[in-house]
Amino acid sequence: MYQYNEFDKAFLRNRAAQFRDQIERWQDGRLSEDQFRPLRLQNGWYVQRHAPMLRVAVPYGELSSAQLRVLGRVAREYDEPEAEVYSRALDAQRKLGTVRLPTHHAHFTTRTNVQFNWIPLAKAADVMDLLATVNMHGIQTSGNCIRNISCDERAGVAPDEIADPRPFAEIMRQWTTLHPEFAYLPRKFKIAMTGASEDRAATEWHDVGLRLKYDEHGALGFRVTVGGGMGRTPVIGAVLREFLPWQHVMNYIEAAVRVYNQYGRRDNKYKARIKILVKSEGQHYIDDVEEEFRQIIEHDGGPHTIPDAELERVRAYFLSPEGLAARKQQPDPLAATALREAAAHTPQLARWLERNVAAHRDPALRIVTLSFKRLLQAPGDASADQLDVVADLVDRFSAGEARVTHTQNIVLPWVHADDLLALWNAARAAGLASANVNLLTDMIACPGGDFCALANARSLPIAQAITERYQDMDELEDIGEIDLHISGCINSCGHHHSGHIGILGVDKDGSEWYQVTLGGSDGTEASGPAQAGKVIGPSFSAGEVTEAVQAILQTYLSLRASGGARACRETFIETVRRVGIEPFKAAANRVRTLAEEIA
Amino acid sequence: MSTAFNIRLLTADEHAAENAADSKRAESSVVTLANDVDPLTLRDAIAAAQRVELHFPSFTDGRAYSQAYLIRRRLGFTGDLRATGDVLADQLTQMERTGFSSAVLTSDVNIDDARRQLQRFAAFYQGDAAHDAPFRRPDAV
């Protein structure tokens, strides 16, 4: 992992001190509410439905065990509302039917950050100081600026990797941090990056998507897409450059953002994202960016051209952890036998090995996903105690390093094959061994109307109801790989547009309804080219959603083509693409009619 | 940190007085740009100007930062580059770094609060209108 030097550390301390100063001026009235808002947002502080919310940046999703422990400490010591705030929140949510509003929790988000829902703003400065002790912060996790860069959770360890994106992500983290020109863009700006052939970072759904590749001469560079985004106008990014030499990635994005800063719309916040500019200007935007890039190189001298030495300096932080190499040379034959025997007698273990354990570029190692999708806890939620357990697991089994995934799980990237049985036992004891990665219950869900001020409907009770309905592992395996994504409003933090099944909360006359979409894709090989799902008709009431999902899945089971062998079986998304949405729509509509007749 | 354009802070009255004095001198020239104007289209006027004034209609409208950068770095303007409009304490560092050399504070900004913000960071991660990126400096960490 990147190690913070004295400059980085002093920078964060200064940032924390600056925020403390800003809070004080806001508290004594020197800063108005409007003047303070963008300052707190650019430090990760929102004001939500019931309480403030802190979003902590996890640059390119990489976390150390020490950072996990401090996140656990923040959850334990600070994620606690004042009694009056909490009782008001409970009263309000009970009226909607919510029974749980957990405190002392952290939440992993679809942009691989970590959120806390209950920290009083009066304690904000103390929390920022505490986070700074492990090089963490909330810089640019909100606001109309370049946000935290998200990345492939298997960066540096995936067998399908072309080049490790993390050194570039780190260099760009530095470049984006407090960039003076781009702190007040028309709207937020999100970059995602991958260096693998499989796109696990949903790059084409981002304002800028970067994919490392080699050109025909063997030079390394990026394919650059621009103008992707969800929200009320889902757009897949357009190719801005098929190949950009890596040295110029910051010069080039500077050109793209500068043109956006000057010409992006500021009169309507729903039309202010770069995707709208790219759509309205098309080739004109691309020409402007290319001309600005040329000027940056030829006239300005390429101020952010990355020198070879700088890339090498940063790359040195991302070598394989020491200690793993020595151990690899002495594989333990007993461990392999014990694992095989245990798996033969323990179906849960066999399933976990199949679902949650992936190949590593090093044959002696494995990539293991700890699933944060289980009963009684929201997708991506981790209690203070669980964060401590994860930190211990990460120390014992993954060289002190973890990754947050955009599907709201945690990945251990450096697990020795001999440790799988011990890891499974420990993860199971902590409730983090659901063998459901990529299955229906491994769903994405935003915090929704239980926490978020923007939400039109609650997401978590829908996630919970579907999770409760689908607890039979045989049934889940039979349904197979499927992406179910739930957002509580059109802002799409739950990525409903890219779900094979997408569920979107909408407000109709003050009550919660849910629109269902089918056929969306985040752009992985299994899901097909990135695209937004299609709506299957009028929205469903909360009580109908699970049945609608059930009807859709039944339709899939009856329609899927089968080659006999399991491996040849059509997946849900393949069937949707082959037969279209009509049969699913008809089945879901029958549920609606039934429920309404019974009512 | 030594900046090439240590930003000079003015009150509205000081700014008005300077403008009045300037307008009496025949050779003086002040170019004022709205924030939706491309400064590259006013190359000659800017080259002849002693001062260019860029406007922030609201502190959350960041277009003038790009204008300032282009005027300094692309057009090589060396005169006074002034921020007017909704100029608050917490955006002064960004102004200084994008090339502004003076700023007219709104009346409710405390001058000490403003100066404190300018002294907070010794250095930054990226290059700006006045500085190279750290990895291009000989003393880079």
Describe this structure in words.
The complex is a heterodimer of chains A (599) and B (141). Chain A is of the alpha+beta class and 599 residues long. Chain A is 40% helix and 16% strand. Chain A is built from 20 helices and 21 strands. In chain A, the strands form four sheets. In chain A, strands 16, 17, 18, 19, 20 and 21 form a six-stranded mixed β-sheet that branches. In chain A, strands 1-2-5-4-13 form a five-stranded antiparallel β-sheet. In chain A, α1 runs antiparallel to α5, α7 (249-263) crosses α9 (283-298) and α12 (333-345) crosses α13 (347-356). Chain A starts with 5 loop residues before the first helix and ends with a helix. The relative contact order of chain A is 0.09. The model of chain A has no long low-confidence stretch (mean pLDDT 95). With 141 residues, chain B is of the alpha/beta class. Chain B has five helices and five strands; from the N terminus they run βαβαβαβαβα. Chain B has helices spanning 12-24, 43-48, 63-74, 92-98, 111-118, and strands spanning 8-10, 30-33, 51-56, 80-85, 102-104. Chain B has a five-stranded parallel β-sheet with strand order 1-5-4-3-2, with helices on both faces. The longest helix of chain B is centred in the N-terminal third of the chain and has 13 residues, at 12-24. The two termini of chain B are 16 Å apart. Chains A and B meet through α1, α2, α6, α7 and α10 of A and α3, α4 and α5 of B.
Please give the structural blueprint.
The complex is a heterodimer of chains A (599) and B (141).
Chain A: H1 6-27, H2 33-41, E1 45-47, E2 52-56, E3 62-64, H3 65-78, H4 83-96, E4 105-108, E5 114-116, H5 124-132, E6 150-151, H6 166-176, E7 191-194, E8 208-214, E9 220-226, E10 238-245, H7 249-263, H8 274-281, H9 283-298, H10 308-315, H11 324-328, H12 333-345, H13 347-356, E11 357-359, E12 365-370, E13 381-383, H14 384-397, E14 401-404, E15 410-416, H15 420-429, E16 444-445, H16 460-469, H17 473-479, E17 484-487, E18 501-508, E19 511-518, E20 534-535, E21 540-541, H18 542-559, H19 572-579, H20 582-598
Chain B: E1 8-10, H1 12-24, E2 30-33, H2 43-48, E3 51-56, H3 63-74, E4 80-85, H4 92-98, E5 102-104, H5 111-118
Parallel strand pairs in B: 1-5, 2-3, 3-4, 4-5
Protein name (chain B): DUF934 domain-containing protein
Pfam family, one (chain B): DUF934
InterPro entries (chain B): UCP030820
